Amino acid sequence: MNHRLPLNQSDVRAGRSGGGPMQMLRRIFRPRTLDFETASWEIFYLIFRPKRVYKNLYYHKQTKNKWARDDPSFFILLNVLLLISALGWGLAYQPGIVRIIRLMFYMVLVDFLLLGLIIAAVFYFTIRKFLTKKGDQFSQGALEYAYCFDVHCNGFLIVWLLLYVLQFVLLPVLTKDNWLALFVGNTLYAFSTCYYFLVTFYGYSSLPFLEHTEFILLPIPIIIVFYIASLFGFNVVQHMVEFYFGK
């Protein structure tokens, strides 16, 4: 069975010509080189079958000599989705152009981008130090920081779906002062966070030069413990609303 995601001719040409931040930047301003079809398939599979996205990794490495994406289409689509959802939050709960822009700035540039760059850096240095196979001929310098950020983007997709979209739809119910609202809201946060680490685990366990990647799953039982404790009276959604909107 062929598990590869769709590839177009621009992907092959990009792989032959090398990669890097400058190429990514150039492709943003060359719409014809962007492969939004493959990026859309990636979004679908990351939600329903995240392992399948990473089954394409070895082929990607062989054709493009890098693990990270060289096509910014997925990053662009994810940012567009975040901007649209942030706009919806702003229109509903932060009336006023300045407040809406400030909320969009915070949700996209801080919650997603800045936090993602920090998380990617933590994984990059930690994994290179502790989870890289010793003596492996490909281990030195094999892990790319750009790939670490790709993994963050992949994991953040479910966070967007559950906390930016589904939570927005259910917010009038989730902010009620009853245990069912607390249970559903806290479950959304716990599940999305655990799923983030699961997708992150899939991303790093797919790299052949890493070992003991199961340690990446260690935050999940910790999250579950805090989740169970929160069910005794700590409504995460209400605290989120107070933090973002002061309500």
TrEMBL record:
<dbReference type="GO" id="GO:0016192">
    <property type="term" value="P:vesicle-mediated transport"/>
</dbReference>
<dbReference type="Pfam" id="PF05216">
    <property type="entry name" value="UNC-50"/>
</dbReference>
<comment type="similarity">
    <text>Belongs to the unc-50 family.</text>
</comment>
<feature type="transmembrane region" description="Helical">
    <location>
        <begin position="74"/>
        <end position="92"/>
    </location>
</feature>
<dbReference type="InterPro" id="IPR007881">
    <property type="entry name" value="UNC-50"/>
</dbReference>
<keyword id="KW-0472">Membrane</keyword>
<dbReference type="GO" id="GO:0000139">
    <property type="term" value="C:Golgi membrane"/>
</dbReference>
<feature type="transmembrane region" description="Helical">
    <location>
        <begin position="216"/>
        <end position="237"/>
    </location>
</feature>
<feature type="transmembrane region" description="Helical">
    <location>
        <begin position="145"/>
        <end position="167"/>
    </location>
</feature>
<keyword id="KW-1133">Transmembrane helix</keyword>
<protein>
    <recommendedName>
        <fullName>UNC-50</fullName>
    </recommendedName>
</protein>
<feature type="transmembrane region" description="Helical">
    <location>
        <begin position="104"/>
        <end position="125"/>
    </location>
</feature>
<keyword id="KW-0812">Transmembrane</keyword>
<feature type="transmembrane region" description="Helical">
    <location>
        <begin position="179"/>
        <end position="204"/>
    </location>
</feature>
